[in-house]
């Protein structure tokens, strides 16, 4: 069976392939090979550039452009050749090394240096930096732009709906009102905090040999400060340097990175469920798309499928990320291979999140506030004013204030007339009675508007 979007096993590359296409440039097998090839080439160039120390014949810098062309012209034919080598060697990085050696050996000006490909490296010296560069690109090119898009939409909604009152629910029961804008602001602020945090997570790499001590390096060139060279090399690639490792970079930063994404995913699950509930209550309407069908048997339905899709995929993403958070920082002694197969699924974990982000963006684009329903719900719940009334009564020392409002409102059908009659009988200043009577379920919204105006 030919591999197409219809025949792939995973919906990531099938049903949702249009949402995850950009991830192929980072997390596909082809891209992983290319990232590793970049690291091998840059390390080879580093060796050549310190040729005086290594007592290698010096190479003119323009000759290094020939090496760069190997990466720039890397294609699927090259990748397939590496995979054929891997079948023979049963070792992916060694196959890549042989490929690069072969390419350099064919360059007359550089052929004598072919043995300096993968010089003093263990496989993880190459792999860990490749993964770091992949994660860096995923963060900067995929995750941050999508988070930014979500927060921009939320921020627009905050100010658009900042004055529209909403009956809040605590324990699923009517509670103190807020505004639609303020309730959206709660989620905006939470996501925006993590947006800032993820930018500051240091992505790390190492290149220090089989157990992190430069043993092989020093055996060849004992008078060179390889620790310093390692630092300069890793930092030159735009990532942070981890000076203390075993054979592997311990992946703590990946756990930090996924913890941040997982938290945003959890916040969005919370958001999706709240919006789903608000749609069910009629607080929000969904824009009608004539060509869409909500149910195969019930023609009237407009289902909140985008928020449901987002919730489901966020759960899948978190399941994988949480496993990686717990698994990746653990390695038996100086190295075991149990992290290798897990790391190859980094893109899968990110992909489920990306699918979810696209879904929530699509869902938000269909929402319209149903002001009529919001006001109707508030009108049916005058009892919520028991909170401010009993609080003012306490201010004036009226005993059992809470208990008196409890007796009046709990389990009772309360309206404006009942509330105003109760206020009229209170032994408080008339000005306070007038102030309380001006309160309604529609304007008892505290500082919600001013708080929203201060949001950044």
UniProtKB/TrEMBL annotation:
<feature type="domain" description="Fumarate lyase N-terminal">
    <location>
        <begin position="14"/>
        <end position="312"/>
    </location>
</feature>
<dbReference type="GO" id="GO:0070626">
    <property type="term" value="F:(S)-2-(5-amino-1-(5-phospho-D-ribosyl)imidazole-4-carboxamido) succinate lyase (fumarate-forming) activity"/>
</dbReference>
<dbReference type="Pfam" id="PF08328">
    <property type="entry name" value="ASL_C"/>
</dbReference>
<feature type="domain" description="Adenylosuccinate lyase PurB C-terminal">
    <location>
        <begin position="331"/>
        <end position="445"/>
    </location>
</feature>
<dbReference type="InterPro" id="IPR022761">
    <property type="entry name" value="Fumarate_lyase_N"/>
</dbReference>
<dbReference type="InterPro" id="IPR000362">
    <property type="entry name" value="Fumarate_lyase_fam"/>
</dbReference>
<dbReference type="Pfam" id="PF00206">
    <property type="entry name" value="Lyase_1"/>
</dbReference>
<dbReference type="InterPro" id="IPR024083">
    <property type="entry name" value="Fumarase/histidase_N"/>
</dbReference>
<dbReference type="GO" id="GO:0004018">
    <property type="term" value="F:N6-(1,2-dicarboxyethyl)AMP AMP-lyase (fumarate-forming) activity"/>
</dbReference>
<comment type="similarity">
    <text>Belongs to the lyase 1 family. Adenylosuccinate lyase subfamily.</text>
</comment>
<dbReference type="InterPro" id="IPR047136">
    <property type="entry name" value="PurB_bact"/>
</dbReference>
<keyword id="KW-0456">Lyase</keyword>
<dbReference type="InterPro" id="IPR013539">
    <property type="entry name" value="PurB_C"/>
</dbReference>
<comment type="function">
    <text>Catalyzes two reactions in de novo purine nucleotide biosynthesis. Catalyzes the breakdown of 5-aminoimidazole- (N-succinylocarboxamide) ribotide (SAICAR or 2-[5-amino-1-(5-phospho-beta-D-ribosyl)imidazole-4-carboxamido]succinate) to 5-aminoimidazole-4-carboxamide ribotide (AICAR or 5-amino-1-(5-phospho-beta-D-ribosyl)imidazole-4-carboxamide) and fumarate, and of adenylosuccinate (ADS or N(6)-(1,2-dicarboxyethyl)-AMP) to adenosine monophosphate (AMP) and fumarate.</text>
</comment>
<dbReference type="InterPro" id="IPR008948">
    <property type="entry name" value="L-Aspartase-like"/>
</dbReference>
<dbReference type="GO" id="GO:0006189">
    <property type="term" value="P:'de novo' IMP biosynthetic process"/>
</dbReference>
<dbReference type="GO" id="GO:0044208">
    <property type="term" value="P:'de novo' AMP biosynthetic process"/>
</dbReference>
<keyword id="KW-0658">Purine biosynthesis</keyword>
<comment type="pathway">
    <text>Purine metabolism; IMP biosynthesis via de novo pathway; 5-amino-1-(5-phospho-D-ribosyl)imidazole-4-carboxamide from 5-amino-1-(5-phospho-D-ribosyl)imidazole-4-carboxylate: step 2/2.</text>
</comment>
<protein>
    <recommendedName>
        <fullName>Adenylosuccinate lyase</fullName>
        <ecNumber>4.3.2.2</ecNumber>
    </recommendedName>
</protein>
<dbReference type="InterPro" id="IPR020557">
    <property type="entry name" value="Fumarate_lyase_CS"/>
</dbReference>
<dbReference type="GO" id="GO:0005829">
    <property type="term" value="C:cytosol"/>
</dbReference>
<comment type="pathway">
    <text>Purine metabolism; AMP biosynthesis via de novo pathway; AMP from IMP: step 2/2.</text>
</comment>
<dbReference type="InterPro" id="IPR004769">
    <property type="entry name" value="Pur_lyase"/>
</dbReference>
<comment type="subunit">
    <text>Homotetramer. Residues from neighboring subunits contribute catalytic and substrate-binding residues to each active site.</text>
</comment>
